[in-house]
Amino acid sequence: MELTLWTYEGPPHVGAMRIATSMEGVHYVLHAPQGDTYADLLFTMIERRGLRPPVTYTTFQARDLGGDTAELVQRSIRQAVERFQPEALLVGESCTAELIQDQPGALAAGMNLGVPMVNLELPAYSKKENWGAAETFYQLVRTLLKPQLPAPGTPKPSPSRWREEGRRPRVNLLGPSLLGFRCRDDVLEITRLLAEHGIDVAVVAPLGARPADLERIPTADANVCLYPEVAGPVCSWLERSFGTPVVRTVPIGIGATAAFLRELHGVLDLALPAELQELEGQPSEAERRSRLPWYSKSVDSTYLTGKRVFIFADATHAIAAARIASKELGFQVVGLGSYSREQAREVRAAAAELGLEALITDDYLVVEKAMAEAAAELVLGTQMERHSAKRLGLPCAVISAPLHVQDVPARYSPQMGWEGANVIFDSWVHPLMMGLEEHLIGMFRHDFEFVDGHRSHLGDGAPAAASGADNEAPTATAPTQVPVPASVATAAPAPGTTTAGAAVREALESLWTADGEAELAKIPFFVRGKVRKNTEAFARERGLERIDAEALYDAKAHFSR
């Protein structure tokens, strides 16, 4: 074990709490000391729920260790069943209780409780929260479906049996849970998306499901593994035991949403609609629903092309973010990693495609160091990376758990599907555009537009600038005389010109070298003229004979101070 200020995942019993709290009719008896009840706050504060998690703690104390703590466990289990009347019971222990080896699940198994009971043996010192959630969900589904297991040799059901039964195809959405990233809205978006293609949703689990709903899982024609961190093991087991095919493409981003729909249509033997037909070099009609493909090819996105992006999150969102950043937004991914050790192989494969070595760690200080060394211009990560990016002065968008309350919006804000692509477009691009705005304000803050007291576009209706005394009339200030290089000051008027200003203009333009003009051309057109004027003013003030790329950078640094 390590002592740390922050952690990406809690112990595995917190993962079990996520499953119990996500569902209805499930209760969790946790053998734990008083101090381990802190986990309640994760749900009431971050998820802003009005209900406490359905958890009964045995809350043993130091003085109980000298007596029979097994009796305390049995009493707590019996009281929980009598009081809450659960449809299914989970029994486990926290990392502290694991040390005293009371084995609460074994005790509960001999109590004839009259409800399905799952004994959770979660190794607290070798596994973590996401593994605990996946294991709990797997054990619960396996326990409830045990009576329905087909006999050996039973033919696997056909995914297209819906056609023979005269109904619409139906699928299960597996994996969404509380404390996941935008799971509630993802379920709504994917349900709506599937309905547009004539596909029904049979069961969503664990989020919002009851034990009876889990018993209906085999009635679906396919399982959609929305969040592999939670649903990966149970989807694999259902595929082996019931022959139910699994759709594993996670629909985050434009390309992945289209690929998800194509995979699903193939699995269910559905005819692929024309709007999903792939067009050579062009997005399909369905993909044009999002504004992300249009923006990626627009003039306004030029400033963002090639931006250096560092990504660290859970495996699902990290892989999706890397794909969107590199293939859909034209960013350069300079770092990719995850704290999800169970999906490390998939993250390493995604990093290898980008010519990178994946960073697999749960040490936020290692991540922060890698972030700084990558010289990133945008960070996509968890709430931990948001704090690190703030220290490094980098824009950041949160794309994954662990998260804080501001990342659980009351508004509709999915990450999956077409609308999810729009949300990602806003969430990622806005920090960069705000960074551009702050950069420009710093660069041009000495121009008259940014000087305190400058006249507003409202004209005489603008408030007067504050003066030293209320009744003191403002005094006119003579314009600053800026020295002009000899080559400019002595330039004679060009033939055909009628003003000395035109001659000065031509002389200034002649100062620009080829590399200076090339760097100037990279600046967005809507501020290029102002950058030119500022740089030329800087050159006059310094008496420069040439304006090359280095002079442009010096001018930028000068006006940014």
TrEMBL record:
Cofactor(s) in the UniProt record: [4Fe-4S] cluster
Key words of the record: 4Fe-4S, ATP-binding, Chlorophyll biosynthesis, Iron, Iron-sulfur, Metal-binding, Nucleotide-binding, Oxidoreductase, Photosynthesis
Ranges for domain Light-independent protochlorophyllide reductase subunit B-like C-terminal: 512-556
Ligand binding ([4Fe-4S] cluster): D36
Pathway: Porphyrin-containing compound metabolism; bacteriochlorophyll biosynthesis; Porphyrin-containing compound metabolism; chlorophyll biosynthesis (light-independent)
Region (Disordered): 148-167, 459-480
Domain Nitrogenase/oxidoreductase component intervals: 12-432
Listed Pro residues bias regions: 149-158
Residues bound to substrate: G435, L436
EC number: 1.3.7.7
Manner of cofactor binding, per the entry note: Binds 1 [4Fe-4S] cluster per heterodimer. The cluster is bound at the heterodimer interface by residues from both subunits.
GO molecular function, one term: oxidoreductase activity
Active site (record annotation): D300 (proton donor)
Enzymatic reactions: chlorophyllide a + oxidized 2[4Fe-4S]-[ferredoxin] + 2 ADP + 2 phosphate = protochlorophyllide a + reduced 2[4Fe-4S]-[ferredoxin] + 2 ATP + 2 H2O
Primary role: Component of the dark-operative protochlorophyllide reductase (DPOR) that uses Mg-ATP and reduced ferredoxin to reduce ring D of protochlorophyllide (Pchlide) to form chlorophyllide a (Chlide). This reaction is light-independent. The NB-protein (ChlN-ChlB) is the catalytic component of the complex.
Assembly and interaction partners: Protochlorophyllide reductase is composed of three subunits; ChlL, ChlN and ChlB. Forms a heterotetramer of two ChlB and two ChlN subunits.
Sequence similarity: Belongs to the ChlB/BchB/BchZ family.
NCBIfam families according to UniProt: DPOR_BchB, PRK02910.1-4
Record's protein name: Light-independent protochlorophyllide reductase subunit B
